[in-house]
Amino acid sequence: MDHFKQVNDRFGHSAGDQVLAGIGKILTDNTRAGDILGRWGGEEFLLICTVSDQDAAMSIASKLRASVEAHDFPIVGHVTVSMGVYCCNGQMDALEQIVSYADAALYAAKEQGRNRVVIYQPFMRDAA
């Protein structure tokens, strides 16, 4: 979630918790039964899913981002999320490596202005 600390500071931790729960519900309602979704920490969530290619992964992430942005949360109103996407092609990397690549893409999304989806590119490897 973008600017989560500001939500907590302005509206209180209870409101922030409600937003996190609401985002979790939006993500759950918009993912498939075989997908793995969970809160990764703080205001971060992790989705692991099987897709055919990077375009499909970006499509899923973009729809999720737009669903969160469109939602009107009680007390807080509208919030945005930034998303980092990493696609494995065939050979599975260790979970730690997968998360570090997705995290590098997430930070790129935040650096580019937030409220966007960025897919991991090899030049981001140094940030991972």
Describe the structure.
With 128 residues, the chain is of the alpha+beta class. The chain contains 4 helices and 4 strands; from the N terminus they run H-H-E-E-H-E-H-E. The strands form 2 sheets. It has a two-stranded antiparallel sheet. The chain has a two-stranded parallel sheet with strand order 3-4. Strand 1 and strand 2 form a beta hairpin. Helix 1 crosses helix 2. The longest helix has 17 residues, at 13-29. The radius of gyration is 15 Å and the shape is globular. The relative contact order is 0.16. The model has no long low-confidence stretch (mean pLDDT 94).
Q: Which terms summarize this structure?
A:
128 residues; alpha+beta; two-stranded antiparallel ribbon; 4 helices; 13% strand; globular
The Cα radius of gyration reads: 15 Å
Class derived from helix and strand content: alpha+beta
Poorly predicted parts? none
Residues in helix, %: 40-55%
Write the layout of secondary structure elements.
Layout: H1 4-11, H2 13-29, E1 36-41, E2 44-48, H3 54-70, E3 83-85, H4 95-111, E4 117-119
Parallel strand pairs: 3-4
Antiparallel strand pairs: 1-2
Helix pairs in contact: 1-2
Concise synopsis of the structure shown:
The chain is of the alpha+beta class. The chain has helices at residues 4-11, 13-29, 54-70, 95-111; strands at 36-41, 44-48, 83-85, 117-119. The longest helix has 17 residues, at 13-29.
